[in-house]
Amino acid sequence: MPPKTTIEKLSSSSPDVTVFKITGTLGFHEKNVLERLFNECARRGLARVLFEVSELESLGGGCARIIRETAQQGGLAIGLVGVTRTVLKFLKNEDVPRIVIANTLDEAIPLVKA
To answer: Which of 86, 19, 28, 22 has the alpha carbon at shortest distance from 56?
Structure first.
């Protein structure tokens, strides 16, 4: 049985933007995976991260909260590419302007500012 969630690092057209593709689901069991990913980004000094989520089937409220809180804390600018309406509904929060939503990676890279 394939894993429910896969996170794969993709190449980026900008050396200071790190891109990850997330497929499957981000639910209760993946909260720790997401927290470790953000901690590793901080440890490595990454300030601009994009998530390509066009194949993400679902996003649980706990994972959405982790993404919002990480963006709100500053230090890590987060962008999401290919967000479906369902996923966007969980991420939408007017108090977190640092999350960039875009249709393509090329569109998102210049918008994600540290």
So the answer is: 22
In this structure, which amino acid lies at residue 94?
E
Lookup: tokens for 67: 């993404």
- Rounded Cα distance between 1 and 65, Å, is 28
Alpha-helical segments (H) within the chain: 31-43, 61-73, 85-91, 105-108
pLDDT digit string (tens) for 27-44? Answer: 888 899 999 999 999 999
pLDDT digits (tens, 9 = 90+) for 101-114: 889 999 999 988 86
Q: By the 8 A CB rule, do 76 and 43 touch?
A: no
Amino acid letter at 71? A
Strand 18-26 versus strand 48-52 pairing type: parallel
59 contact partners, CB below 8 Å, separation of at least 6: 25, 26, 27, 53, 86, 87, 90, 91
